[in-house]
Amino acid sequence: MADTEPDCPFCGIAAGRAEAHRVHDTDDVVAFLDRNPAVEGHTLVAPKPHVEDIVLAEPELRGSTFRAVRTVAEALDAVVGVDAHTVVHTSGSLVGTVEHAHVHLLPRSPDDGVSMTLSRRELDPERGAALADRIREAA
Hints:
alpha+beta; 3 helices
């Protein structure tokens, strides 16, 4: 398989060199159960080529990855019986130990014990307007 890193565990799974409980597999994307799940059915959806940030990947690969997220979410609905999903993509060394783009798909229920708390504060209207202007200019 092209575009793989020899020491990347997710490249190993994508190429079939490493074991994983695969739940979905296409030419571009592989989905497999997390080895350390937060909840039953916690699935990782990863593009097969080694990319570090799915948001910055080629549009076709982004599309394939998020179509796979939807496919797996629908399957989890049918198999695990969930009330909702939490879908998380993180990138960079500050947020994880595997620098291969992936999406966490967590089936949710009221008593699952998962907490994803964000420290929040009110957005100052002037700072918000200035930031929005800068983002629009950069986009």
